[in-house]
Design a protein that fits this description.
The complex is a heterotrimer. Chain A is mostly helical. Chain A has helices spanning about 20-50, 65, 70-95, 100-130, 140-170, 175-205. The chains are: A mainly alpha, B mainly alpha, C mainly alpha. Chain B: Keywords: Cell membrane, Membrane, Transmembrane, Transmembrane helix.
Amino acid sequence: MANMEYNVPSERWPAHPETATLEGKNKFIGFWTFLAGETALFASLFATYLALKDSVPSDDHLLAADLFQLELAFVMTMFLLTSSLTSVYAVYHMRNNNFSKMQLWLGITVLLGLGFLALEIYEFIEYTHLGHTFRSSAFGSAFYFLIGTHAFHVCIGLVWITLLILRNAKRGLSVYTAAKVNTAALYWHFIDVVWIFIFTIVYLLGVM
Amino acid sequence: MAEIKQEPISQKKLEYIRRERTKEMRQQMVSFALMIFLTFVAFGLVAMDLDASFVIPIVIGMAFLQVILQFYYFMHMKDKGHEYIKLMMLTGMFFAIAFVTTFIYIVWIGAPIE
Amino acid sequence: MASATKKRGVGPVIWDYMTTVDHKKIAILYLIAGGFFFALGGIEAMLIRIQLAVPNNDFLSAGLFNEVITMHGTTMIFLAAMPLLFAFMNATVPLQIGARDVAFPFLNSLGVWLFIFGGIFLNLSWFMGGAPDAGWTSYASLSIKSPGHGIDFYALGLQIAGAGTLISGINFVTTIISMRAPGMTYMRMPLMTWTTLVASVLIVFAFPPLTIGLFLLTFDRMFGSSFFLVETGGNTIIWEHLFWIFGHPEVYILILPAFGIFSEIFATFARKRLFGYSAMVFATVLIGFFGFMVWAHHMFTVGLGPTANAIFSVATMAIAVPTGIKIFNWIFTIWGGSIEFTTPMLYALAFIPSFVMGGVTGIMQAAAPADYQYHDSYFIVAHFHYVIVGGVVFGLLAGLHYYWPLMFGTMLSEKLGKISFVLFVAGFHMTFLIQHFLGLWGMPRRVFTYLDGQGYNTSNMISTVGALMMAVAVIILLINIIITVAKNQKVGRDPWGDGRTLEWSLPLPVPHYNFAQTPLIRGLDAYWIEKKENDGKMMPAESLDDFHMPNNSIIPFVISLGLFVAAFGALHFASGKEWAIDAVSDLPQHPWALWVLILGLAIVFISMGVRSWKDDLGYYVTKEEVLKDLEEQERGAK
């Protein structure tokens, strides 16, 4: 039994391949624990943002209500929500041991994520032109730190999923790679969870 | 440590698992539709320029609803084996609300609560 | 692999420790590095006490004094107490739950190297233009104004070390949740494991707010943002909140594992089952939860308003209840036991009254109106040294003596141990008891000297003499360690003779795979049960077979090094820039800073990519190898 049994033949493909090994189970529990920590991290960011919202040095500085556009935030939300669904598809196919479809849906997730990121960069450039920058006010600092940390998470998620698609292209699906894909999918969903609070608390409550 | 002790799955069992998965996928589609719907309503309410004290609690409530859908259906928190995870995320959320509340009310800008 | 640790040169041994993922070796790394920083923090403490020994002293200048007190606090909390606790957690927890390693051996190694590099970075400030000088709490109103790079070292060094702690916390939670041996239910876990679990959960929730707080400080000082700059809309109270949201749970992160160590020691040397085990578990969890709900009691005098003060005041007093439960349970454990006065037991016995005194003054400060009197006086200094030295450091010293045979296979001298115990405990009370009164007489904390004729002279001298006694005690402890290592007299299985929990059932030195066969756990105090009801051998839960172990890796070291390099880039990034804050805008510009920052981060991300790209499948320990080891142990026992 001294050889590795990661490559399970399809008739023995487990119902939950991502947690079939002890390593997979550890990854699953460890990553959720990490996400719990991320909750505290983003809570601190939201708290800082709310404390410093519209806190600007002079009267002529732009405030949240002047800046945010609902249309853009709405489109970005749609991109990210849909990408969350596509990564659900990827996990579904992973559990069904359907490697090529899993890769396809992961690829679509990355494309949607890129779309979201592009809009976010466009938004940042817009605001910078309007004089709302990281250094212009405490409001600006808090805004860019909160949204920027989320955008940084999106970047990490994109690089991570892309790396997984590439590295698994030759290796195929095994209980070893399944655990990796599942973890990345959880991460991607969590990014979406954070965004739900961002569009509600920053954008929706911001324009009111 | 690494090897899995997975018995071959019988044809019947496999069909059952597949069926369950399809069912789950249907649930996920429904929750996605709900999430899109909630997003529409939230943006709509704000765009309609209603009274803030009416809109804010609703919009925040809907955000929590969306997050619950995301956690339970997209991230499989409804499945068994997630008891510890529910406990951790609930604790995290509780702390998160505590942090945010303090930062709104007691950062000593203006009048702190009496 | 690790089985080939017979006689080797220095080079391979160092390489082995740099790449190791074995929790027992990582425990030793934590012990050595933590011990080093403990000595450093101790030297700083001595400098403070020498400066304050007589009025109007000029042994240290005012500025240097500020740097010394800041570094003393920061070093002791982040670089000494926490790593030393991690040393014992690493050394015991996987063994107590019957696991062959932690859940993420790679991350375990990453955690220790991040801590070591963070600690080195922080202490390099001494040689690179001055240490941080805004106190260990580094309140933003003060730290933003602090000229030079001191605070930058604080923010970046703690960021790196804190990342390591967070990673280790996640690792321990996962290990305890998912890697317990068959039969090891939650309510059969030894208290050390329970307290580690709760402390790790606290780390998971408490360190991210610190991360954010440190980022805000970093951005303000090095990247031109204005979170704390009032003139552009900033608010320095945010730092206080974030720091104490982290800082209060932090003291429970420190004390809970110490409680765990004491619980093990009381049960072992009273030769009794721990009294009220389930109440102890309940109290541990409750302390952990309350620990998060009370942070603003550090900020009563900020002016949060009576409502907020009242809420946090009541919540703070509530913590006394579970802590009281614990104290009574320990006393009842000793009650009627057949007590053996070993060095660890002596520390444990001294801990109870010392810690209760610290706890009682804590309740005094929890009353918000009274706290206005105590705030920023030596009363506070006395209080937190009573809980941290009387609780955590006693726990560390007790743990050092108690777990030394488990970690190194030899016994520390009991005679020297008892001498250093007497000196340490006497010196501790002499140093800090009088400081309560100094505080009530009006001596403020963090002042570098005081005038003659205020009635502080004698008390400060007593305090300094007490501190000297503690220093002598630590030197005797070091001599003890050196003698023990030089003699190298090996001891066998269950060296204390009364081991109750699973870790003592293992042969010494513990094989690198810990358990030849995963044991079956039949109840609380698993090993004791087998000793009383059986032949004193753990029953195996699996047949003897090949099993799987993780590979060593240098990547954790490289990632930590990358962050270390990046930190130097960030440090000099704002120097002399026009947008920089006043504190660093006069310094010479460093155009290379950005490139160093990018280089460091590139090292980090490329290493992470490599780690993700390669399959790391580990290796197998064969049945034959295990059988050979078992035979050898058999022969050794005869």
